[in-house]
Amino acid sequence: MSNIKYSIIIPVYNAEKFLKECLFSVLSSDRSDIEIIAIDDGSTDNSLQILKSIQSLDHRLMIFSQKNAGVSAARNKGLLEATGEWILFLDSDDYFTTEPFNYFDWIIASHINCKVFYFSSKADKAISMDLFRQDVVLATLGTRGIKNEFTELCQFSSVWSRLYNSNDIKTNGMTFDTDLVMGEDLFFNLKIQSFVKEIVLSTFSYYFYRNNSDSITHKLNTEIPLKDYLFQHKLLKYCESNNFKKVIDLAYNKSVLEGILVSCNTCFHRYPWNQYITARRAFFQFINQEPYKTILKKKINYRDFNILQGTILWCAKHNFFFPGYFIRSGVTLYQNKK
Q1: 6-209: what fold?
Q2: Residues of each domain in the chain carrying CATH 3.90.550.10
Q3: Eight-class DSSP state of 96
Q4: What are the Glycosyltransferase 2-like domain coordinates in residue numbering (predicted)?
Q5: Residues contacting residue 273 through CB under 8 Å, at least 6 positions apart
Q6: CB 91 within 8 A of CB 160
Q7: Four-CA torsion 20, 23, 26, 31, nearest 10 degrees
Q8: How would you class 152 by CB atoms within 10 Å of its CB: exposed for 0-12, middle for 13-18, buried for 19 or more?
Q9: What's the CA gap between 333 and 293, in Å, rounded?
Q10: Maximum average pLDDT range among 20-29, 144-153, 197-206, 312-321
Q11: How far is CA 337 from the centre of its chain?
């Protein structure tokens, strides 16, 4: 039996609906050399009780509780407590579709100099928006626009479906940026790719990503654009300070355009009819600040986007607020047909 120890870090917040499926997908392995680190991030439902009941059945599950501080703080706590040689992140509403550890043993032994492995994954729904930001991560590798089986199934900017060397993370003081609510995974990968010499991409798929829309509410949530604004400014500052010129040249403009799409989908196109004027005003304030204002003035390659996303960007470029309900209905129809 392998002597490689794996640490699986699971942030948990009000996850009672899917938590058992998540945990049992890992605990079904008979491997003794794994530790499952669950961080309850101030849940107000039965998540903590579920964790304790499962821990009583399996000592490999470790539980830590903290006041609600967000997923980044929870993952940082997991990194602090992890004792495994290799680290994986698992979201509490996702699960492992197969036992991956024997394959991990083999691929680690086959690539002894590699410190990060990217694997494929499956999702219950099409993932559209965040795929644009994979160009940011690809640019740190000196490439972009890879089109093959791997990149069609996987998001480069996420931390799930990844295998990270624990020693490298701790030696380089790697943590998640707790100021960010959007793009924190991408920053984690950018930092890692700045010092590792080899990354292995594999089409092996063991991870199922549940695109959970329960948390998306029908309201004008202006916090989303503010979060993207912070992300875009931190991204540019980080790339400039680390001389990531390729990221700026190849991917930063596209990241800003995606920020507009995300903000429209989660904020400006989600409002009761009686808040139309408020939503319209907030939208124009958003796109007329930097970096959105400058990027929208540049030429947009609409071929990089589907017709609905291109419509939103065209409207933003020409200072036109397209009625959000029609866009949202069209996006839903488009995604259901895919």
Answers
A1: Spore Coat Polysaccharide Biosynthesis Protein SpsA; Chain A (3.90.550)
A2: 6-209
A3: E
A4: 7-98
A5: none
A6: yes
A7: -110
A8: exposed
A9: 30
A10: 20-29
A11: 24
